[in-house]
Specification:
With about 240 residues, this protein is an alpha/beta fold. The chain contains 7 helices and 13 strands. A hairpin with a 5-residue loop joins strand 11 and strand 12. Helix 3 packs across helix 4.
């Protein structure tokens, strides 16, 4: 029997029924397992623990969640910034840098693309509605599996090959996005208003794909794009 590749999955903490708990949406672990992978949810530890937490892992999934503290990229917070999680920021920034050193294949989702960009030296748009004129809606009360705006992906990019498409519709639950790309990253997907919806590592020494939408909520939809993204991650880890 072939052993499924092990993937580290980032998490947050939340006070639930009076107890602080480690939490990750089940859609992440379900999507990884359905693609043939073996997910392990990481607790939030100190930055000094990040590298060792990747021992035995064949991949890393950076999940969605809170806004990234703007101090990490040298800015003061916009009034809309909220729900920052200092311990999570520090741990995940260290995880990204450790994954880069290890060349550990990494898939980053929503907050994941943002924290990875910051970790590698980039900045963020802190509030899309107030910083981009005529922005399409990126955050709303629609259902988690609603495809609410178009995404154009650069043909022949690693992301386009993973998705099996250069044009798709995506769900969206964010008010922040990548502003200045970190050195080494390349923007390969955009929303109609220019917001960066996908990025990848430009060189061939690290498999790193990042998307701003939530593909883990769309893997049971009729459209194949999001299942294909997880399948591409799994195929790379199994190669």
């Amino acid at each position: 029997m072939t052993t499924r590749p092990a993937v580290a999955v980032t998490a947050t903490t939340e006070l639930i029924r009076g107890v602080l708990r480690v939490r990750a949406n089940a859609s992440y672990t379900t999507s990884l397992h359905s693609a043939g992978l073996r997910p392990y949810v990481l607790p939030i530890l100190g930055a000094g623990d990040a590298d060792s937490m990747l021992d035995g892992m064949q991949g890393l999934l950076l999940t969605g969640g809170e806004d990234v503290e703007p101090a990490h990229y040298g800015e003061r917070p916009h009034p809309t910034v909220g729900d920052v999680h200092a311990e999570r920021d520090a741990f995940e920034i260290a995880l990204v840098l450790a994954a880069r050193r290890r060349r550990l294949p990494t898939l980053a989702i929503c907050r994941g693309i943002q924290v990875a960009n910051v970790a590698l030296g980039g900045t963020l748009l802190q509030d899309i509605p107030s910083e981009i004129a005529n922005a399409v809606p990126h955050d709303g009360s629609w259902s988690r599996d609603s495809r609410v705006h178009d995404v154009d992906v650069r043909a022949n990019s690693t992301l386009a090959r993973a998705l099996g498409a250069s044009h798709l519709q995506a769900n969206s639950f964010h008010h922040q996005s990548v502003k200045r790309l970190a050195p080494g990253l390349e923007a390969v997907a955009h929303a109609p208003d220019g917001v960066i919806e996908g990025a990848e590592w430009a060189a061939d020494d690290w498999w790193f794909l990042a998307v701003q939408w939530h593909p883990e909520e769309l893997t049971t939809s009729p459209e194949p794009w999001d299942r294909a993204l997880f399948s591409a991650f799994a195929a790379h880890l199994s190669s």
